[in-house]
Amino acid sequence: MAKGFPEKFLWGGALSANQSEGNYLADGKSMTVADMAYFDPNTDFKKLMMSQLEVTRDGIEKAKSATDVTYYPKRRGIDFYHTYKEDLALLKEMGFKAFRYSFAWSRIFPDVKAENPNQKGLDFYDRVIDECLRLGMEPVITILHADLPLQIIEEYKGWANREVVDLYVKYAKTVLEHFKGRVKYWIPFNEISVDLAVPSRKMGVLKEDYSDYMNATYQALHHEFVASAKVTQLAHEIDPQNKIITMTSYGPIYPYSCNPDDVMLSLLSQQKNSLFFYDVLLRGRYPHYALKMFEDKGIQLKMAEDDLSLLNQNTADVIGFSYYNSTVMSSEPSQLEKTAGNFMNAAKNPYLKSNEWGWTIDPVGLRYSLNYLYQMYQKPLIILESGSGFYEVLDENETLHDPYRIEYFKQHILELKKAVEDGVDVIGYITWSPIDVVAASTGQMAKRYGFIYVDQDDLGNGTKKRFRKDSFYWYQHVILTNGEEL
Ligand code: BG6
């Protein structure tokens, strides 16, 4: 039986372009859906989260006419556009083996229809990737991470339009060729499993644009699946060393009790919320339960002749997922509620604590997930995001003691280690996010995940200076001992 972590285990952390870069119009970049996310300081985080889920044309018009960065926090991020060198140096100091980052389509093709990319956009990512390689960190790149160019909504009505596949593939081909030999790990879409829950924000499919909305959302998703398969094919042709990683948000969906109705519901919910995506991307076909659901709901997908064979022949190489929490299904409706951490109605787990945003903390669920996904799909796995947000302030000595974060990661890494010892082929553990960034769901800066503190508040006040938290030194030691000393 394997003992401990493999020698070349990818310890690391992830950021996304839209939550960190800022400088949202610099060097020709165009606007994205992330630049539209409005932050109202007088609203609590639950309402903030809800307000950011639905994109409307009115909302876009209002946001476009505002030149403000104070209330549109993703427009300013943490200024990684200028601080990338200093930030990467800090990650290297922690001993990172891998750095996961995303490219902004809107920097590389500010006009998605253009024939040629924007050189200044490529130049920026050249600087980031070259610095990362110089420091000896393996880049893991997400091609689209929640920052759909606005033009895709305004001119194409989102991914439900087949033309978007070609636009995206042109962009993906550009970066695959440009970074050939430098970037080997590629993720076509971040958390594709969330796209049906927030179709306007993730896929640019707005309710007001489609009379048969449900059909349009599945059509859009089909186009993303096809685009993903095309990128997989291209990536392998361009460089056989390339590895394509699927990226879904994953967490166990437990039955509330041993009542067979609860167990059945948990299975159905698992199929709908996560296995569906893996089945298409890893097994290369729409599973029976999806086809049945299409039939029941009258969903009719328009497909090109070779779509199904394309999906079948171009499956991903590595199973990737973000791991934040687990959920519970109950057949008793009174037990169900829409908790802040969930997109679906779920029951409360009496055995687990939650963070202040209602996301359950479930280290054992990580071992469960790794075993479960490996047994189902039998490909190597990588955890692409893992972490928890906390409210934090720097003390007068400019230090921050965060034993809760250390404990959080310690428990998760212990379970991860057990999964490795169970025989699961795990190649890396990428934390979210090693540096405090603007939160995706709420736009808060106050929801801090980092080992590195960024001196900036929700409205952008602060020096933006970086400070090492206690967990910085702790994770550094974990990496140094390859997970042996926690
Ligand atoms: C994932 C996203 O959904 O969760 C990240 O891929 C995001 O972009 C992370 O930041 C945590 O969510 P939040 O809303 O707490 O930032």
Output the radius of gyration.
21 Å
Mean pLDDT level = 95
Structural class: alpha/beta
Please indicate the percent range of residues in DSSP E strands (runs of 2 or more).
Answer: 5-15%
Topology, number of strands: 15
| Measured distance between first and last alpha carbons | 21 Å
CATH topology tier name: TIM Barrel
| Distinct ligands, ions and cofactors found in the model | 6-O-phosphono-beta-D-glucopyranose
DSSP helical segment count: 16
CATH architectural group: Alpha-Beta Barrel
What is the CATH class designation? Answer: Alpha Beta
Can you tell me the number of structural domains? 1
Shape: globular
Largest sheet: 9 strands, parallel
CATH homologous superfamily classification: Glycosidases
Helix content range: 40-55%
Unreliable parts: none
Strand order of the largest sheet: 5-4-3-2-1-13-12-8-6
Describe the overall structure:
By secondary structure, the protein is α/β, with parallel strands linked by helices. The protein has a single domain, classed as TIM Barrel. It has 16 helices and 15 strands. It has helices spanning 17-20, 45-53, 57-65, 80-93, 105-108, 119-134, 150-154, 163-178, 199-203, 213-238, 260-283, 288-297, 307-313, 363-377, 403-422, 470-480, and strands at 10-14, 98-102, 138-144, 185-189, 243-244, 248-249, 253-255, 319-323, 327-329, 336-338, 345-347, 381-386, 426-432, 452-454, 466-468. The strands form four sheets. It has a nine-stranded parallel β-sheet with strand order 5-4-3-2-1-13-12-8-6. Helix 4 (80-93) packs parallel to helix 6, helix 8 packs parallel to helix 10 and helix 10 (213-238) crosses helix 13 (307-313). The mean pLDDT is 95. The structure holds 6-O-phosphono-beta-D-glucopyranose. Residues 16, 19, 146, 190-191, 249, 322, 385, 389, 432, 439-442, 447 line the site of 6-O-phosphono-beta-D-glucopyranose.
